[in-house]
Amino acid sequence: MAALNDLFLNLQRWFVGLLARFLPDWLVMVISMLVVSVMLIVTALVIVLWLTWLERKIVGRIQDRYGANRAGFLPFGLLQPIADAVKFLTKEDIVPREADKVVHLLAPVLMLGASVMLLAVVPFGKGMIGADIDIGILYLVAMSSLSAIGLLMAGWGSNNKYSLLGGMRAVAMLLSYEIPMGLSIVVAVMLSKSLSMQRIVEAQGGWFGLRWFAFFFPVGTLAFLTYFVSALAEVNRSPFDIPEADSEIVAGYFIEYSGIKFGLFFFAEYVNAIVVSSVATTLFLGGWQGPILPPYVWFFLKVFALLFVMMWFRGTLPRLRIDQLMGLAWKVLVPVGLANVMLTGLGIAIFRALGWA
Amino acid sequence: MLGLGIAKGLAVTLNHFRKTYFGSGPSKGRGLFTVQYPEERLAPLARFRGSLAHLADPETGGPRCTACRICERTCPVGCISGIEGEGRGRERRATQYLYNIGECLFCGLCVEACPFEAIAMSHEYELATYSHDALVYDLRKLAEIGKKYALEGKEEA
Fold first, then answer.
1. Neighbours of B3 (CB within 10 A)
2. Residues 6+ apart with CB under 8 A from B85
3. CA neighbor of A169 nearest in space, from A35, A353, A325, A318
4. To probe the interface with A, which of B10, B17, B35 has the most A CB atoms within 10 Å?
5. Which of A111, A157, A190, A201 is deepest in the core (most CB within 10 A)?
């Protein structure tokens, strides 16, 4: 059991030990960093590919149909993502004549870069973290704001009224929803007394690994809910898919993008969905903590449960109007978040005065 | 209560999701409704009108059609043509009969008009071809369709 728990860590240790026999220390470090980052990106790519398949299946089932089930020789349409990827790669790459070429081409790269960089601080298991920095949460919030710039670049660079409209909406939405998101993150930080992702998870360790902050009623539960709602908005998922509302502005900021550039946006969006689910898991659902099963299994179980909820929402809720969207952020989530922070502070002070914490 | 509507909606969709896996079927009016066409087929209703078919004479095995050309004159779009026959009186039988399914509107008036019940609208519905010529069926093809239709045992329906 212990061997299974530390499987990936031991693999890494074995690999580094192997290299250290015939390479200088600095080279070993560079190589192990490279290997870890490549593994992160490849894992994310593979998960994203089949996440699109999963989403199509789940939304299909919700609508009483099968979803993708034809492509390739594998059952259940398991090769559909491969077919999609090949299609993305072989489609014509079109840049509009009047577009701001540099900005237009750079936007998808920036989007993907911003979302992949987020993976660095996600603790996938006990000790399984790309970079265990002390201000992991701060880094995460900062990096996720970068995608707003990417969206605006895409909207502006395409020189299309719909894309510009989509970009403006996206930025307005992202900026609004970052505040309740930050406020709910603050609650988790206050409860764990740390900004490091690892230590936040470790703080949720008691009660057989079930001392999750989401169970700290009412503050933790409320913070989890506000975080999840604003995270849905952060990653442009339904019912907050205003920036790409097909029925209003066709496809929003990526209307002019074709082929692999569109693929990059798509990929970035799904990586973002995985990252916000991972962060919600880390902050409120006890990260990799849990009884019996190995830590990374617990982590991915929780992440996929949240992703399922996201798809479930997509199959259920209609899109909010832009004014309802802003109203929800500023009139509901921000006051609730602020009150929640105050309540948490008060609670911690009371617990400390009583000597319970 | 705030959010109750959303919870109700989520319950509805989750129920539909569940029913696609457990204890369901199109016959019960819930679950998966998609028919996986090449592998699964819905049986056409008895009154369904597909391609025209020539029925066989139970005594001779040949066509029942006497080439009286009433169907040709009844057809509102003129998709029946080239009818030829052999023999005299009660022995007369069709030897050729051209039916252009590309023009046919499946109204069934020819079947209504036929005094010998020699033709019927079969349940044949996979009628795509690669050329216009293949849309014109001759007597042999129509008899084949009729044989298949008779085997399905829905002739009298």
1. 9
2. B65, B66, B67, B92, B93, B94, B95
3. A325
4. B17
5. A111
Contacts of A59 in chain B (CB under 8 A): none
Dihedrals phi, psi of B34, to nearest 5 degrees: -65, 135
Contact list, B20 vs chain A (CB under 8 Å): 61, 64
Are B41 and B124 in contact, with CB atoms under 8 Å apart? Answer: no
Q: Look at residue B25 and give its three-state secondary structure.
A: strand
Question: Inter-chain contact A312–B14, Cβ cutoff 8 Å?
Answer: yes
Residue B20 and residue A61: Cβ atoms within 8 Å? yes
Per-residue pLDDT of A186-229, as tens digits, reads 988 888 888 888 888 888 877 777 788 877 778 888 888 899 99
Mean predicted lDDT score pLDDT of chain A: 85
Element at B86 (helix H, strand E): strand B80-86
Q: How far apart are CA A302 and CA A300, in angstroms?
A: 5
Q: What is the pLDDT of residues A299-322, one digit of tens each?
A: 888 999 999 999 999 888 888 888
Chain-centre distance for alpha carbon B33 = 23
Q: Up-side HSE of residue A6: CA atoms within 13 Å toward CB?
A: 8
* DSSP 8-class letter at B53: E
> Which of B20, B36, B37 is the best residue to mutate to test the A interface, defined by the most A CB atoms within 10 Å of its own CB?
B20
Q: Which chain B residues contact residue A315 at CB under 8 A?
A: 13, 17
- Is residue B99 within 8 Å of residue B83, measured between CB atoms? no
Question: Across the 157 residues of chain B, what is the mean pLDDT of every consecutive 10-residue run?
Answer: 83 84 59 78 84 85 87 91 86 89 90 88 88 90 85 55
Indicate the residue of A64, A312, A313 with minimum beta-carbon distance to B32: A64
Beta strand B93-100 with B80-86 is antiparallel
Sequential DSSP letters for A123-165: --BTTB-S---TTHHHHHHHHHHHHHHHHHHHHHHTT-HHHHH
For tokens 């057809």, what's the residue? B75
Neighbours of A59 (CB within 10 A): 19
Tokens (6 digits) for A137: 């949460």
Which domains, from first to last, does chain B contain? 1-40 (no CATH), 52-151 (3.30.70.3270)
- Dihedral-angle region of residue A181 (phi above 0 means left; psi in -120 to 50 means alpha; beta otherwise): alpha
**pTM value?**
0.81
Phi, psi of A159 (to 5 degrees): 55, 55
CA dihedral angle for residue B32, residue B35, residue B41, residue B47, rounded to 10 degrees? 80
So what's the pLDDT on residue B130? 93
CB contact under 8 A, B21 and A61: yes
Q: Tokens 């919870």 sit at which residue?
A: B7
Task: Report d(CA B143, CA B140) in Å as an integer.
Answer: 5
- Contact of A89 with chain B, judged by CB distance below 8 Å, is answered with no
